[in-house]
Amino acid sequence: MFFFFVGGLEQQARQVLKSGAGRCIACGSPADLVDYEKVLKLFFVPVWRWPGKQPLLHCSNCELFFPESFSPPPPSSSTEIPVEVKRDALRCQFCAREVDPGFRFCPFCGSAL
């Protein structure tokens, strides 16, 4: 006899606090600042819910939750790009160093881009 457990823990957006507050670190889509809750599911049925500790950014395109400090600022309404910002530059989300866009991992800290 064996026991097969089907369930898990997931995060769900509870309330949107600010729409378009940042950009997704994975896909670049607009991300909303949300209050979220953690949900324990057993056989795909929610069993227990509890609120998250602080608001997070949530991308509705790829369903990713991440802290606000990791997100680049949302695109500005003006079409001008400052001279110091390079179009081909990519920054690591963990060490904030400039990385070549062809890399999949940061050569400085080793995190996935």
Strand content: 35-45%
Q: Mean pLDDT score, rounded?
A: 80
Number of helices: 0
Fraction of residues in H or I helices = under 10%
Number of structural domains? 2
Distance between the termini: 44 Å
Rg over CA atoms: 18 Å
Would you list the SSEs in sequence order as H and E? EEEEEEE
What's the number of extended β-strand segments? 7
The largest β sheet comes out as:
5 strands, antiparallel
Shape: globular
Low-confidence stretches: none
Oligomer: single chain
Instruction: Classify the secondary structure makeup into a structural class.
Output: mainly beta
Plain-language structure description:
There is one protein chain. The chain is mainly β and 113 residues long. The protein has 2 domains: 1-66, no CATH class; 86-113, no CATH class. Helix content is 0%, strand content 42%. The protein has no helices and 7 strands. The strands form 2 sheets. Strands 1, 2, 3, 4 and 5 form a 5-stranded antiparallel beta sheet that branches. A two-stranded antiparallel sheet has the order 6-7. Strand 1 (7-23) and strand 2 form a beta hairpin. It is globular.
